Amino acid sequence: MNKTALTKTYTKDIQNFCLNSKKIVLSLATISFSASCTHATLTPEIETYEEANRHTKARSSVRSKSSNNETINNSQTSTKTISGTGNTLVIESGGAITISNGSQQAVNFQPNFSTSTFLNKGTLIGGNNTASVQLGADRNNGVTIETFDNQGIIGNGSSKFGVTVWGKDNSKSTINNFSNSGTIHSNAGESIYFGNANISSFANSGTIKSKQGAGVNISQGTSIGNFNNTGTIEGKKDGIQINANVKTLKNTGTIQGSAPIRSLGGTIETLINEGTMKGESIGIYMSGGLVKTLTNSGTINQNNSATWAAGIKLQNNSTIENIINTGSIHSNAFGISVTGGKFGTLTIKDGGQVYGKYSAIGVGRSQTLGDLYIDGSSSKIYGEENGIVLDANSRTQKIELKNGGIIKGKIHGIRLDNGASLSGEMILSGEGSRVEGGSGAGILNRSGKIEGSITIKDGATVTATSNHAIANYRSGSITGGITVSGKNTKLQGNISNIGNASIGSDIKIEGGAKVEGGLVNQGNGSISGSVQVSGGSSIDSITNEGNGVISGSITVDKNSKLDSITNTSTSSTGISGSITNNSDNKLEISNSGNIGGKIESTGSADMVISNSNGGTISGGISSSGSGSTSISNSQGSTINNGITVSGSAQVEISNQGSVGKDKNGNTVTNNGSGSVGIKDWLVSTDKNTGKLNTVVIGGSGKDNVKVENITVDQSNVDLEELNDINNIISGVNQNNIGNIGTNGSGEISLSFDPITGKLTTDFNLNASISGATFRSLISTTSRRSTFIDNVMGNSMQSFVLASSSKSQSIAMSEKGNLYADASDYIKSDLNNGSYGSNKEHSLFILPYTSSQNVELSLNEESKGHTKGTIIGYSTLKDSGIYGVYAGYEDTKMGSTYFDINNRTYYAGLKYFNTLFTTEKGQEVYIKAQGKAALIKNDLTEKIGNNEAKAEPNSYAYGVNTALGMNFISNKDIFSPEIGLAYEGGYTEAFSMKDTIGQATVKGGERTYANYLNLFSTKTSLTWFRDWLPNLKTSVELGAKFNINPKVEAEARFGNIKVSDEFDLPRVQKFVSTSFIVPVNEAFYFSLNYNGMFDKDGNTHTGFAQFNYLW
């Protein structure tokens, strides 16, 4: 082509450009002549940009002009100011403008300037207090540039700003194409600032960096069509700060700063991150404005661990309508957080992940998250504390997890707090989908509101290491119920409804799902619907406790499994519906609350029912399947409407409570081919009629009912009714009746002859409160008598020790039972060997304790304790030693049927004297004693949960005497002794008064006055050893023989008078040991033990004794 043709072609192009500048596509080859249509002067030949550049280099001048176009390829130090229109500016790679004046720019495009092209391949460095390149002026008219292209360096980190673009509301700067493939680097301010500017396209493939400020600041009044970063944008403060409208912002490079993107206002229609965003303080920070769609397939990292920080943060009423994350959002605080604004739809899919050190997704107080979707096998929401947290009064619409997505927190997987609302459903579905909690719960609703339902299905899992899979807590509510459905679907932990929480609909475990834990309803928790286990599903247990309420029924279908139901609720409602087991798996039911419906077993499974602690089953019990059923109804518990058996079921019943009758008047109905075994049944008296609640057996299979044991409750029983077996049980084959008895201590016994049908009643006072009182009285009186003998002997013996060792005989003679004090044995030796004989008085005060075992109830050894104090005084006279004592003691004894407590006040006199000494030096002595005691009894009789009391007085009195001899061999003394004693006593007549319930029979129970006159002999042998002057020991073995061990007693039960005999043990054995340490002339100290043993019990006493003599 010749030059003329070339000129015409270019001329036509320029004319077209003047007509429509938007259609021109500029290249570097045409920049030198396309500055302005207004000033263009056509020449017959126009050089290309490359040609003009070659000509310029050939000349000595450092710049060239063709019309208003300018190219710089050398170094300059003054501002290049561009004004007017049609001017182009090109800075070649060798060109540079470096300004030393702090307030001067390298290039300044004046207001109202208009050009097609600005190209920088060189270096532009402005002053340190201004921009390197300024377009327009603050609060002034803007500029118009078709293409702003930086391929070189602007700023180099020394100028305050890199590029500033100014305008005002009615005269904005306009740049169609703003591109940077070089470096724009500022110091204190923004690298790029847009204020009141319209940018059609912004593309960065180079580096935009600010040492102290923002990388790019898109300020008010600005709009950007497409913002595309494939390079690096970095700011000390923010990577990009936006307070304007941006149609599309896309990052495939790197944006980093305190916040990689900070929005202060305006609208971003589409925000796309395919690269990396790094935030030192925060990630994408919305402090105002709107993002319609945010798509992240790259990486957003945030390093700050402050609690306000997040990877994506909404504040100050900002909004993100849609977030789609297929990449990674990682934060040292919160992954995605809204504390002042609104999220629309949040979708995590295709392997997208959100991680937060605290919570992965946090919706702050009173804020909003729309729908949340997590989709895909590698998609994950993970928080070191919580996966998702909805704070107080926050709102969300729907949470859906599917296709293997994961929500995980080391405390809670999902947490709703006070007043937080989920208006829609929570759906977790798909193999591998998982909500996982740690020390808290998988899903925690703490006083929040889930207005829809929670559905876990198709292989999804909810788990927590704490064993709380789903926890509805405090005043939390789940309106739509809970469904766990599908094969391989699991809840690894409990469904817990705690505090004042409520579940407003059914709980369904279906389609082969597993709950590896239980349903726990605690506190004031309420479940309004039913609980259904079906389709081969399983759950470990259902527990209703505290004041919890389950308003519906509980059903276990065929092939499904529920191990146990426990109802301990104190609510009057408890479980208001029925419990039905249709499965072939064993079910155990424990109830101490209220079950409003019936319990029914229809399948082949075994069932165990325990009704205890006042529990009530209002609808009765029905067993119609083929499995075995065991029923236990404890004392104070009730089963209404009877027990019905049909089919081939085998039923075993133990009843200590109350079982009502069905509509046909039967207590137990057997209409099946199976057998019914009554292991034990307590028949009580009806409080209203005063008659026994007869056990009525009915049904076509009643002959297959066998009674192993039946017990009549003595409480308020009319003894006249015990004459006929049909008052106790009827309808049963009498040959199938085993043992019949009562629930007392054995004072009333029954015997039944199935051949004659005769029922007889026998009485045994030895087993009654009268016998228990007698045995306790004898035990404590004998123990006290021998104890007093010993301690008084200790006090008296020291008077005769100075002149003769015969005084040791007192010690030997005073053993004989459990309270014997071994110090008795040493007084003579102690005083003879160490001290003078001028003592005439002895005084002691001795607190003491004793433990004893007595057979209060027959064949039951009962433990008791005695605490007391005794004071004694002895004086030496020519005619012998005289002593006086007084004391008080408190005894408490208890057994299954009786408690016997008494307070005793006692006193007595004692005498000792040596009769003579044999030729061989053996001493023969005598001693005697008289005593009396007042005993104030507190007696309790216990029949079941009922009690009756009486408080009669007893009076005890007695005398005894003994002869003994001391045989002395060096340091050893052996002392045999024999004695005779009389023990008398009298106990007032008393009637038992009911204090709790009614423990006595109808007509009351009275024990008549009892008189005791017992004679006994005693024999013993004592060995005393004088080891050292200040160390003595003694051991005594002996036995007491009761001469007349039978005592008569009389009592009345209702209108029946009874007399009986009490048998005392014929022989009582005793052992005593003492360890004695003389202290000085006036004091001695001893450690003592005594044990007493007979066929009815034993007593053990240990005590330390000090005696003072003067």
From TrEMBL:
- Compositionally skewed regions (Polar residues) per UniProt: 63-85
Q: Which organism is it from?
A: Campylobacter jejuni
Source taxon at top rank: Bacteria
Q: Where is the Autotransporter domain?
A: 836-1110
Transmembrane annotation, as ranges: none
Question: What is the protein name given in its UniProt record?
Answer: Autotransporter outer membrane beta-barrel domain-containing protein
**Region called Disordered, residue ranges:** 51-85, 565-587
Per the record, where are the segments of Low complexity compositional bias? Answer: 565-583
The UniProt entry, under PROSITE patterns, shows: AUTOTRANSPORTER (PS51208)
